[in-house]
Amino acid sequence: MKIIRAEHLGMCFGVREAITLASETAKQEPLTILGDLVHNEAVLAELRAQGIRLAQQPADVGTPTVMVTAHGASERAMTESRGRGLNVLEATCPLVHAAHRAVARLVREGFHPVIIGKRDHVEVRGMTGDLDKFDVVLDEEDVARLCERPRFGVAAQTTQPIDRVRQLVRLIRERFPKSEVCFIDTVCQPTKQRQNAAGELAHKCDVVIVIGGAHSNNTHELVKTCSRFCARVHHVQTATDLHERVFRAEDTIGITAGTSTPDSVIAEVEHRLKTMVRHAEATSTQSVRTEHTSRSTLHFAGTDPSSDQSFVRFKERHQ
Question: Which residues contact 305 (CB under 8 A, 6 or more apart)?
């Protein structure tokens, strides 16, 4: 077996900065994070170990300071938290902030906002939370349900595959040829890099391991991308999810990871894979030795012991 890494994989700078901010703040004062800082259980477990609390609603916050996640939040949501007397600390990724500004600009210029992404995702809720009217689309059926408007302003959840985003923008333009469609590309560069690298990796591999949280959108998108080019793709959260039975001795194994996956988890998965490789090589070597010994014995006898006739000839030659 051979193991190769994607050129770009794992944590992006926005996630690293959010984790650092949370850890440094928690050293100074009690801290509650509103929602999941990132969609990775290993990261969340480490935050809890530092005494950081997690809450899903402002009413559940029990500390003076609350942190907005890397996925961002609407101004309305943050105003609600401040109205409860909370000190609001933002860990919003700068590229998510850029997406918020793009949507606000489209609205100011008179475009009806259309967000390409998952309607129930925390990032999309943050992008649309300050809007009175908007649409969210993720596939052709969603585009088919759009009502005609003179001007559409299109932006995207930052972790959507850019190919899907461009395809949906094209479909909107085709469905409404008389409408003005303004598209601002808000898919972040780390997502594009990891998507492209994952596709290139999958082309070279017999099996691809995608490491990331169970609820991580960008990790799920990496799985989909790899599955287009490789028939055997496995999504794992940690090294304990790996099983030797899914690998073959001759496999080339690729590794990629979502933007919220810690380096330590990637290293643990790679270490376990290397252990499996060594075990497979040792087993293969033992099998070759056994086969070689078996063949030598038969060659020495000069006959097939399953054949009575050949065994008689063998005895006659040696009497």
Answer: 298, 311
Whole-prediction pTM value? 0.82
Q: Which one is catalytic: 123, 141, 281, 316?
A: 123
Pairing of strands 151-156, 135-137: unpaired
Residue 293 to residue 283: CA distance in whole angstroms: 15
**Contact status, residue 186 vs residue 128, Cβ threshold 8 Å:** no
Q: Mean pLDDT across the chain, nearest whole number?
A: 88
Instruction: Give how far the C-alpha of residue 48 lies from the chain's centroid of Cα atoms, to the nearest Å.
Output: 22
Q: Could you tell me if 259 and 159 are in contact, meaning their C-beta atoms sit under 8 angstroms apart?
A: yes
Q: Is 281 a catalytic residue?
A: no
Contact 125, 187 (CB under 8 A): no
The span from the CA of 89 to the CA of 78, in Å, is 9
| CA distance between the termini of the chain | 50
Residues with Cβ within 8 Å of residue 282, at least 6 apart in sequence: none
Domains of the chain: 2-7+190-281 (3.40.1010.20), 13-93 (3.40.50.11270), 96-187 (3.40.1010.20)
Q: Give the angle 56-139-205 at the CA atoms, nearest 5°.
A: 90
Q: What is the pLDDT of residues 171-216, one digit of tens each?
A: 999 999 999 999 999 999 999 999 999 999 999 999 999 999 998 8
Residue 62 is given by DSSP the state -
CB-based contacts of 117: which residues, under 8 Å, 6+ apart?
123, 124, 127, 136, 138, 156, 157, 160
Res 301: pLDDT? 32
Amino acid type, 187: V
CB 276 within 8 A of CB 244: yes
Which amino acid, residue 288?
A: V
In the structure, how many helices (H) and strands (E) does the chain have? 11, 12
To which residue do tokens 């030797």 refer? 244
**DSSP assignment letter at 249:** T
Span 121-145, average pLDDT? 96
